[in-house]
Structure formats: C-alpha cells, structure tokens
Design brief:
alpha/beta; 12 helices; 15 strands; 29% helix; membrane; Lysophospholipase; transmembrane; AB_hydrolase_fold
Length: 420
Amino acid sequence: MSPARKAPRQHGSEEALPRSFWALLGAGVGLGTASAVAASSSALAAYFARRIVTPERVRIEDQEVLAVQGTGAQRRIILKATPETVVDGDYSFFFDAGAGHARLGRLEDYVPGEGTVTRPVVTEYSGDLDRAVRGRWSGVVYSSPADLGYDFEDVLIETELGVAPAWLVPAPNGATTTWAIMVHGRGATRQESLRGLIPARQLGFTSLVVSYRNDGDAPATADGRYGLGMTEWRDVEAAIGYALEHGASDIVLFGWSMGGAISLAAADLSSLRQYIRALVLDAPVVDWVDVLAHQAQKNRIPRGVGRLGQFLLAHPWGRRITGLAAPVDFRAMDWVTRAVELRTPTLILHSVDDEFVPFGPSALLAGRNPEMVTLETFRKARHTKEWNVDPERWESSVVTWLTETLAPRLTPGQGRQLGQ
C-alpha cells in the first residue's frame, strides 16, 4: 500500500542562473575606470562562483497566469507565452511558493499575436490553482510513484552524512535482480526522475529514486555546497550498497543533468562500480567548463570573468570565497577529454537546443567513444525535457538500448517482449 502523499515542497528541473545575476554582471562590466572594472570583475566572478555551487532554496515564480477556466475534463489554464510554454508536451506548474502543483497537458492553443497559450489541467496534486497569479514551469510531471499507479515504499539510505530518503518501487513480480537508481539534477528533487520509472518498470527492474546531499531532502554537508558531482556520487554509492543488500545483482544508473555528472563519477570512482552495468543519461553535464563558458557567452559576460569564477571553484585558495570545503576538480569531470576512459555502456538522450547544458559535448563524447556511448538526439526539448516532448520515443529508446545492452542478464526474451 502506498503512503499518502504530502504536498510537495518547491522543486523542479535544473535551470540557468537567475536573470538578476546576469544583470549584475553586466552592470559591473560597465564601470568606468580600470581599477573599478578590475575590482568589479573580481567581485562578480566571486559571486558567479558562489552561485554555481550554492543550492537555491527559493525558486522564482516568473510565469504569469492569465486565467483558469472550467471544471473536470474541461478545465483549462491560459498562460503568458514564453519560450518554454509554447513547446508541446506535458509539464508541471508550481505555484504558491511550491505548495501548489498542477500537471498540464499538451498545447491546445497558441496565439502569437496575443502572446497566450492554453493548456488542459490534467491533475491538481496540491494547492488552489484558481487563486494562482504566478508560478513556475517545470519538466517534472508526476508528484510521486503513486501517480504512475505504482506501489512504493518510503525508505532511508544510510550515507556518510546520515539517512537520505528514497522511494523504493518494487519490480513487478520480482522480474529481475537488476535495479535502476534514479539521480535527479541540480536544483531539482526526486520528482524530476520519476519519468525514468516507466521504462525501468517495463524491463522488470526494481527502482530506487534517491535524494543526495544538499538537495533539500538528504542531509546537508557542513559547507552546504554542491560538489557538482564530485561529492554527491558517494550518496549514490550508498544507494548501490542498499540495493545490493536487498537483492540486487546489477545496477543501472539513470541521471538527469548534474545527475549525469554524478552518475559518471560513481561509475568512475565508486568501490562498487563493478556492479554498474549501464548509464542512462538525460541532458548530462559531461564537461562543466563548457557549461559555465556557455552560460557566460549566452549572457554576454566577458570571458575573463567566467574564467576567474572557474579558477575560484577549482583552486584551494578559492574556498575562502566560494565556501566549498574542497575545490572542484573540473579535469576529473571532463568526459570529453576522458572519453576513452569511460568503460560503462552509456546511453545519452539530449536535445540540440538545450539552453543550459550544451549538446556539443555529448555529441563529442559519443563520437570519441562509439564503442561505449550511444547518443539519441532530440529537438525542441530544451533542458531535460526530452521525455516531455516525445515520451514514446524516450521510453522506447531506453527500453530497446537496455534490452540490447543487458540482454545476457535479463530473463530470456523478457526485455524485448516488454519493450515492444
């Protein structure tokens, strides 16, 4: 029996840094004197570096609600058109500081001249949508495994920092001893990775949907900072240990965005890495330097400011400014340069128009290590919304690839049969 759901706290998919941050950077660059420019650039680079590794506890609700109409199957919401709301697919709308959560269906009407979009309200998980004035768009769709019709348990995983909550979704009829571990991205929570349960369930996997340090669910570190994958993998290792203790023989890691960087680090560094048979990565960060450079260029930030921010994150001296307990090892997380060292079969699903984590490094990684890396290219999905735009293709790609990759470990004929 699944436990009753609680109202979700604020969560969502990984996003770019706030507009206010980029505006502040741009303003600083405009100062008149050389000394003022140097001082401003240093201060802004420090701010840049801190923002990268500091979890955001309050998410900006910048999506305007124009109207909510009807009831039941006829219920509709009219929103201001934005680059996100005009893209087809199912999404979530969070409002009332994250206490309200509604699932919205596929695009029904888009009026460019009026700048409005209309979508059906599929489910209202929590809150009073009629009273919503503003909210936040998200690629999250489901609130808990129960929304998919799956039984689940709330479990606690012992990590080096304390217990981290997870959802355990048992395999149907104990079909296989392969377990899937779902790892969400930066600024998100477990709800982001619920989409991965669908193909995992088809393949007969038991799934663990995990939390990790500093994500607001799991214990925080003393510095309260993201390690961008270089520290969080230890919590994934603890989840692997939990799975092995409870009957797993093989592990597949699913990772979204920074969750991809975490999964790659686990496959590289964990003492249990021999049990990781495959990686399924959605819009993964495979080169943080490229991500940070992309954000700076996109927002017209001088290259030197961005490089100084990277230096502060990577150098032991910068810890006094960033608040990190240890510097970030960008070289260790540069999987484009380290492509031939990746020896775990990996499926990457990535949209060419990703506005936060560029598609290019994923393509380079796949090109440099075609033996281990398979790339499924999507379009018009932006960041971590490949499933939202085309769930059938996303799920079938995962099922087909995992069936072929894990064929000797699945029940004969099972994976192929369930995937078709």
